[in-house]
Specification:
The protein is an alpha+beta fold.
């Protein structure tokens, strides 16, 4: 049984055993006696004259990246990418339009007809194993994080899927897979109210994912960007909880190595949880030693929040490196600005090693001196001068922390926004790596055919398609035609 599949309520067979090949979606180009059918059952189909487009149209009337078709839970949509001559649907020039069976699409001098049996899939759904994908929570270098619904219990959860191809020339896919396994191993050790809980993880040939609790929340990065700097008592309450979570994590022989506002989740009642253990260091795991030997002393972490010692050697750190990153995150929450807002990562890393940030009291006189001292101690260059344990830091924050806080947000609105932002990132031709970031997600389970179709003026050149059920060979396209059974 394929691990990634789609269901159709109109079929009488069991949805869990449905073959994904029952779906189809094609752009049909007809010229004289010849017909070309281009399969578009994929997350994105980039159309233009550039050789890396999924559908290459060689003509001066077609831009290098002219338009893009996307596939989501509601079906197909086409987006014009600010082309000079425009994109037309049923003879109407469009910026964006939903598509249905029979629609006529014109790109330059080329006209296509959409043929599909997909309509609004929100009543049906795409599945990863038994989990129905609802929306996108986030994207990152290792994979995509989805909101899913368990088809058995109907409970909503988060599911992180490993990308099938790294977007960095300096990182090998094998390294990503090892880190993903380490993230699963880290999650298995952790059970704490201030840490997002791992429920299950699967590492198989057909799919690799982590199943996590869905904590309906806003991350600290989003909260500060929306509301501006937070009150010191609110910040103290948030980071007292973060410190308690780190105390548990460090007690389990783990170092997070990527504490930052985007990885701190805050619920409506102020409950705060640490997430994303993709860079977690498991010093007692032999796979860490293998990675260290492969990667040397490469700097792991986020440049705005990484500790001086971690930027020098990411494999010779202890829990005090996380406390430095926590201090940087507190600084951001109190000021709305990172400690060293410099233009390049190299400059930021050097500043973490050698410079002091602007004092907090220059941003606001309302920040208590005691809170300023806590942040300054966290940001000491010498780990011996910082708080020595997360528990010690939590105790220092407690007197300044609000007893209760409430954070106003609508999670469904946040989810829709993140899903929309992810779709636009996929469709942005200015990002040269975007084709490589198509996730190993629901669309890759659908049947695909060769993407090597070339339409040249009125003359159609069709390259020999590969054998059925094999991967397409467009640069950046890493999805397989069908998942192995």
């Amino acid at each position: 049984m394929s691990s990634l599949h789609s269901t159709n309520p109109s079929d009488k067979t069991d949805p869990a055993t449905q073959n994904a090949s029952s779906w189809y979606g094609e752009l049909v180009f007809e010229s004289g006696e010849r017909t070309v059918r281009k399969n578009v059952l994929r997350t994105t189909t980039l159309i233009g004259s550039h050789e890396q487009c999924n559908l290459q149209l060689i003509s001066p009337t077609v831009e290098p990246a002219h338009c893009v078709m996307t596939l989501d839970a509601r079906g197909f949509r086409i987006w014009d990418l600010r082309s000079q001559d425009g994109t037309y649907v049923n003879n109407q020039k469009v910026k964006s339009a939903r598509l249905k069976h029979g629609d006529q699409i014109r790109v330059g001098k080329f006209s296509f007809r959409l043929e599909t049996n997909l309509t609004d899939l929100t009543r049906e759904g795409f599945f990863i194993d038994e989990y129905r994908v609802i929306g996108i929570l986030g994207t990152g270098g290792m994979g995509w994080l989805y909101v899913v619904q368990d088809g058995r219990s109907l409970q909503r959860m988060a599911l992180k899927v490993l990308t099938r191809r790294t977007n960095s020339k300096s990182v090998h896919q094998s390294e990503l897979q090892t880190r993903f396994k380490l993230e699963g191993a880290a999650g298995e050790r952790l059970r704490h109210p201030n840490i997002v809980e791992l429920i299950d993880y699967q590492h198989r040939a057909d799919v690799e994912y982590l199943l996590l609790e869905l904590f309906e929340s806003i991350n600290l990065q989003e909260l500060v960007q929306r509301d501006g700097p937070l009150r010191a008592d609110v910040v103290s309450r948030i980071f007292e909880q973060v410190a308690h979570g780190l105390e548990h994590l460090h007690g389990c022989s783990l170092i997070h190595r990527d504490i930052k506002p985007a990885n701190l989740l805050i619920g409506n009642d102020g409950t705060t949880k640490i997430c994303d253990f993709g860079l977690a260091f498991l010093g007692d795991d032999p796979r860490e030693q293998e990675l260290a030997e492969q990667m040397g002393d490469d700097c792991l972490g986020t440049a705005d929040y990484v500790s001086p010692e971690q930027s020098v050697d990411s494999y010779r750190v202890d829990g005090r490196a996380d406390l430095y990153s926590l201090g940087c995150s507190m600084y951001f929450a109190l000021t709305g600005q990172v400690p060293f807002p410099l233009p390049s990562s190299r400059e930021k890393l050097l500043a973490h090693r050698n410079s002091k940030p602007v004092p907090l009291n220059e941003f606001s006189a309302a920040i208590p001196a005691g809170v300023q001292e806590i942040v300054e101690r966290c940001l000491e260059k010498d780990p011996d001068k910082r708080f020595q344990t997360a528990g010690e830091l939590a105790a220092a924050l407690a007197p300044f922390a609000a007893q209760q806080i409430h954070v106003s947000f609508d999670f469904e609105t946040i989810l829709r926004k993140r899903t929309s932002q992810a779709s636009f990132r996929l469709a942005d031709p200015k990002k040269k790596h975007y084709l490589q970031r198509i996730p190993a997600n629901v669309a890759s389970s659908l049947q695909t055919i060769s993407s090597d179709d070339h339409l040249e003026g009125e003359h159609v050149v069709i390259q020999s398609p590969p054998a059925s059920n094999v991967a397409t060979h467009v640069p950046g396209d890493t999805s397989s035609a069908t998942d192995p059974h």
